[in-house]
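Sharing a chain and its predicted structure for anyone who wants a worked example. Both blocks are below, sequence first, tokens second.
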Amino acid sequence: MVAIVRQAVRLGEKVVVFAEEHVHLDLVVGLLCHAMSWKRDEQVLRVDGNMTQGQRSDAFERFQKEKGPRSAVMVAAVRACGLGIDFTVASRVVMLDALWNPASDQQAISRVWRTGQQRRVHVYRLLVEGMGEMYKLRCAQAKQRLSHVIFHSAAGGALASAGTSSSPNLNDTCPRRPHSPPPPHPTLHQSSI
């Protein structure tokens, strides 16, 4: 993640790091402050559900308005960045946690990739194999595929004609969790939007 942030700063771009767990937010802020010799609330801003609405609004505004390396990274809890939050000043998104709800995942990414965005958006998903995150990601992807089949097929009538025996089922689609996970090793999934 430090390499992603260094590259973004070198290119004059801002980064939003999303996580679900507060401990992950703490680790990211500490890591970036240490590795980049930065200070919290200067180059690294944080938003989470424990902050007042005023504190969140101040952090959002600083991230949007401050230029250069100041306020270069926003570390944010997914749930604290709901309706009306716009991070189009950033062009890089780092997703630290796989979310069970694929709509929440897409909503977080859409805070950066939305109308008004002038740059190509790079999305990075940093997960550790064997720690449950890949399982959550696969289940969320299966839910997303199932939703797509249901809503798009229903519009064309294909689902109704398929019958109940061949209808998609999340239990059939979501991969089963292995009994003994392989030893963990970092996995990086990157895509550009």
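Comments welcome. The chain has seven helices and six strands.
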